Amino acid sequence: MTDTSRMNKTILTTAILAALTVLPSVQAQTESQDNETETAADLDDLVVIGTRSETRTVFDTPVPVDVIDERVLQSTGAVAGELGQALATVAPSFFFPRQSNSGSSDLVRAGQLRGLSPDQLLVLVNGKRRHTSAIVNSETKIGRGTAAVDFNTIPLNAISRVEILRDGAGAQYGSDAIAGVINIVLDRSAGLDLSAGYGQHDTDLDPINRSITDGETITADIKYGWALAEDGFFKLGLSLRDRDGTNRAGFDTIPFFEAQTPANLALRGQRNYAIGDPDVEEINAWFNTEISLGDGTLYGFGTLADRESTGGAAFFRYPDSFSNVPDIYPQGFRPETRGDDLDLAGTVGWRQYISDWSLDSSVTYGRNRFEFGVDESLNASLGPASPTSFDSGTFRLEQLTVNVDGVRSLNWSRPASLAIGAEFRHEDYATRAGDEASFIAGPFDGAIGAQAAPGLTPDDEQDVSRDVFSLYADLGVDLTDRLFVNAAARAEDYDDFGSALTGKLSARFALTDELALRAAVSNSFRAPNLAQVGFSDTTLNFGDNRTLIRTRTLPVNDPIARSLGATDLSEEKSNNFSVGFIGQYDRFNFSVDAFRIEIDDRITLSERLFGQAIEDFVQAQPGGESVQSVRFFTNAVDTTTTGVDVTMGYETPFAGGDLTLTAVASYAKTDIDSIRGTTDELTALDPSLTLVGVEEINTLEDAAPRSKGIVTADWQGQRLNLLTRLSRYGSATRVFNFGGGFEPEQTYGAEFQLDFEGSYQVTDSTRLTLGVVNLLDEYPDLSSSDINFFGNLPYDVLSPIGVNGRYVYGRVNFSFEDSGLA
Fold first, then answer.
1. What is the pLDDT of residues 607-620, one digit of tens each?
2. Is residue 441 within 8 Å of residue 495, measured between CB atoms?
3. Which of 811, 772, 770, 802 is nearest to 246 (CA)?
4. Beta bridge partners of 311
5. pTM for the complete prediction?
6. pLDDT tens, 115-143?
7. Mapping DSSP to helix (H, G, I), strand (E, B) and coil, where does residue 312 land?
8. What sign has the CA pseudo-torsion 16, 17, 18, 24?
9. Burial class (CB in 10 A: 0-12, 13-18, 19+), 357
10. DSSP per-residue string spanning 682-712
């Protein structure tokens, strides 16, 4: 038995024993107590995550939980109403990188918690598991190889609050909850709300010495809620977004490896490239309802998002190059990727009290379909007959989840509650080939496939599915007036790779009425995402001398991958430890929590394996024709992440209003403990090949900032509200592998960002808001000449401050109360 397996079994056994040993320690049964009534009266402080056995307040939870309400999210000035960007602005340990020149990752962004991978974060909506995107982020830097939840498919106007559990929670919620859990609670208030907004970037771009205005953004939102009899409600809403793209490219000096012909050199000093955001048009619809029927409650909620993104950045193709057909593009061309992203989710459920049990049964369905393509492109091997627009393939993921959960108070002498439940989940992932012209090899001597988005081939098509069944139990007990203990255990079975057992033990000890200690120990896991099991595509990447070569991502069961030593993926396994304290003194509150997360068998996308030996071998295999480089997923890395989170808040009357001061900070450092050796098959081909090289090591350890701090002053008067926010993002390091031993590295220093927002209540129903994000127009450090790609890409997208500069916005809100139905 390995040390990790022994630790996992120890944690599970400890959690189960803790639950069992509590039973004899409790005296004879007494009348049950209403735990919910005994918690804090302020509903905004109540949370449903942290423990499944009962509802507790933020102050009472044995693990750290952040609660971010609708008003705070709206005050972030999030570009185009992006939920992910809003969370990154206010949540201490949440990051939401803006990618560029990253294929489909320009169009679908992923968030991360505590510096871990985006797919190590579980997302819930109203307490129910959310499906992930069908897109694998194969070309991105942060979260490379992951398929994560697309936060931006949930509009801001749908949200009442967001709860962020910063602790491992696999025993409570299942796979993916290694870094923590984010629960998005939908709005249920009555009345009519309308808003319209406009914003744009107004910035000075130093590399080209110009002032730029772009990224024009128009938003419109409407929602209406009815209050129904017996605390029921029905709420629905619509959200529209229209955002123009941005470009922060520099002047081109022409790469040395391109042909130094008059046609190419004539482009020197122009802005031929792009770095920034694509054009986005999006419509989101949602609903949320509860209706009392007889002895129970029927509830349902759902979201629908349709987003069209165009203009995703890609590298410029020069007039005289292997990638171009001068008859079509005599001045060269820059392809623009596009995506049609359709996402829907819906839940229907029934809650009812039977005997002493509160039972909740539900069915949740989620589906994401992403159609990827490219315009202003060509397949050079087809010559002058090549199309210039291509559909490059379709990705689809479906998830059906059935839950049965029960919670009851126990008639013990001490307050106690028990939660048990079962879950069945069916997942299906499929891909479909693109246009034949997007991947076919034509008769001309030129680059094969649609430039910037080579199409999926029939060999790339996949259709994989799995069934998952799990059982859990969660017991919470106030052992004394000061000590609360929570124990949870979960068994989960996957029909495609096996079973996993997880356990969690957490406790909170009140030193005084105002100060408490809390700690938790658990093990969690993450099953390989179906997209990681079945994903296959072909892209263009840098090879030796920075030339673009065709790279194919292989599923681990592909014969070529097997011949190179690929094996079936297994689950990631983690051990989570946290300890901290929380205080609440009159108007001042604070928390400090330290954590350690040990993860074995992390799933990573291997390095691009290229070189003459690998190229000759792959092209000799069926399906390897014209492929120059390959990569596949592996369980190759063990890591340890350590860090600390700090939160502080203070409220006081000031200048005729109420002033709230908050300060939050997070630090997380990931170290690689071990890396699996390169397979014998690869070593036999080329001893210099490695599965995990400098780029992936950089991604895991240094690419995401280790620290983040946010200080906010929020003053609310009778009609006027003023908010100022100062954020500091830590440094980040970028390493490239351009082949031939050329591996440039650069550390981008810490950056500060100042935001401001002011709003005025013109009438009882009308509020005007003006705000500025990045008021001082800060940018990351300029990239060095080794990294800026010959002046074209002056900034790196690693920095959370982004590369778009100052953003100015205005918004008008109309709100009308509705008494509803009696």
1. 888 888 988 898 88
2. no
3. 802
4. none
5. 0.91
6. 899 999 999 999 999 999 998 887 777 77
7. strand
8. positive
9. middle
10. HHHH-TT--SS-HHHHHHHHTSS-SEEEEEE
